[in-house]
Design a protein that fits this description.
The chain is an alpha/beta fold. It contains 16 helices and 11 strands. Helix 9 packs across helix 14, helix 10 runs parallel beside helix 13 and helix 13 packs antiparallel against helix 14. The protein binds NADPH dihydro-nicotinamide-adenine-dinucleotide phosphate (NDP) and magnesium ion. NADPH dihydro-nicotinamide-adenine-dinucleotide phosphate binds next to helix 1, helix 6 and helix 9.
Length: 380
């Protein structure tokens, strides 16, 4: 039995991870953490029988404790709960499917405790990759990508020995507004931005995909996972989301991983790496697919992507500013407090106002995050 724990079990990646567990009969779920969806968490506790579960607010923890009073499960709350879920003695792999920078501390603690990480929570690597990757190396811990593009890159690197990567070709669907110009994006509503053409995901990442912030975060995520320079990563629009990403080697050979858009594939690959297992679901049918298209990203309209390249190139605390500004701006957009195009404007404003800190400590990262939030909140 493989023993896992999941941060963010009630979300899009979390529930799909549990589907993978359900299909395979040899994974034991030892601990689960969620934000506030205690109804779903209760169901998950009843089905998967973890010995520990955590929710964010103590109020919700109290409610959950009474809902599962008949079971032998400990219920915790707050950051302490997230960390306990992450470091449980027997866990082998922690799936980080929580959304946002809140995942940094639990991820670091899990690595210190020697857990392998199946990483979906890209915001953590973007902001603290310089702390996490060396720590993982020191602790001999694997950071296995769950993000579909990064899983594709990871798969395309297998079997190529120690050969250096010349270029990473990071594919993007282009999101719901591909082909549109700034003027056409002025009145985008929350409902419009939440319609992704190919993937069904959590709200934050769906908005991020529409602004291309997600691709920007993925450029920085790839930089840490695969130890390449930011400018070795090229974003390629592949509207059908069939090629999940590619690696170009020095002789010009390009390796790619293709498949139907289904997050269960990268999730299962991370959980069983290096073994592949049967996964039910539709297969690519090249006869009906007939063609694949490619485009260059429009970095003028979707300039969040060029801001991400800038943040990634500069490094230090600038990626934290990019990410934290986006996290709060997306929340405000989802609450209908700001307009769509303000998301990227806010990111740029915070980046311009920031004095970069080289090699920030965890405390400095969290202070920068708080400073960015203050700046955004004082905008109006
Ligand atoms: P969702 O919004 O669907 O899920 C987020 C999860 O995090 C939920 O379980 C939520 O709990 C939990 N959560 C939020 N805040 C807290 C908190 N304070 N304490 C504990 N748990 C919390 O997001 P996704 O599954 O879409 O994304 C998760 C991560 O994976 C993100 O970093 C995203 O970028 C990445 N990712 C997602 C992909 C996808 O296909 N969805 C693809 C590639 C990467 P609750 O619902 O109970 O509040
Ligand atoms: Mg992705």
């Amino acid at each position: 039995m493989k023993k896992i724990a999941i941060l963010g079990s009630t979300g899009s990646i979390g529930t799909q991870t549990l589907e993978v567990v359900r299909e395979n009969k040899d994974i034991e779920v030892l601990a689960l953490a969620a934000g506030s969806n205690i109804r779903l968490l209760e169901k998950q506790i009843r089905e998967f029988g973890p010995r520990l579960a955590a929710v964010w607010e103590e109020e919700s923890a109290k409610e959950l404790r009474s809902l599962v009073a008949d079971l032998d499960v400990e219920i915790l709350s707050g950051m302490e709960g997230l960390i306990r879920v992450s470091v449980l003695e027997e866990t082998e792999i922690l799936v980080t499917a929580i959304v946002g920078m809140i995942g940094i501390r639990p991820t670091i603690e899990a690595i210190k405790a020697g857990k392998d990480i199946a990483l979906a929570n890209k915001e953590t690597l973007v902001t603290a990759g310089h702390i996490i990757m060396p720590l993982a190396k020191e602790k001999n811990v694997s950071v296995l990508p769950v993000d579909s593009e990064h899983s594709a890159i990871f798969q395309s690197l297998r079997g190529n020995g120690e050969n250096a990567v010349h270029k990473i070709l990071l594919t993007a669907s282009g999101g719901p507004f591909r082909g549109k110009k700034q003027e056409e994006l002025l009145d985008i509503r929350v409902e419009d931005a939440l319609k992704h053409p190919n993937w069904s995901m959590g709200q934050k990442i769906t908005i991020d995909s529409s602004t291309m912030v997600n691709k920007g975060l993925e450029v920085m995520e790839a930089r840490w996972l695969f130890d390449v320079e930011i400018d070795q990563i090229q974003v390629v629009i592949q509207p059908q989301s069939v090629i999940h990403s590619m690696v170009e080697y020095e002789d010009g050979a390009v390796m790619a991983q293709l498949g139907t858009p289904d997050m269960k594939l990268p999730i299962q690959y991370a959980l069983y790496y290096p073994k592949r297992r049967y996964l039910k679901g539709s297969r690519l049918d090249f006869w009906s697919l007939a063609r694949l298209d490619f485009e260059k990203p429009d970095m003028d309209t979707f300039y969040a992507l060029s801001l991400a390249y800038e943040a990634g190139r500069e490094g230090g605390s600038l990626p934290t500013v990019f990410n934290a500004a986006n996290e709060l701006a997306v929340k405000q957009f989802l609450n209908r407090e700001i307009k769509y195009l303000e998301i990227t404007e806010i990111i740029e404003d915070c980046m311009r106002a920031h004095k970069n800190i080289k090699n920030p400590t965890l405390e400095e990262i969290l202070t920068v995050e708080a400073g960015v939030y203050e700046r955004i909140k004082s905008r109006r």
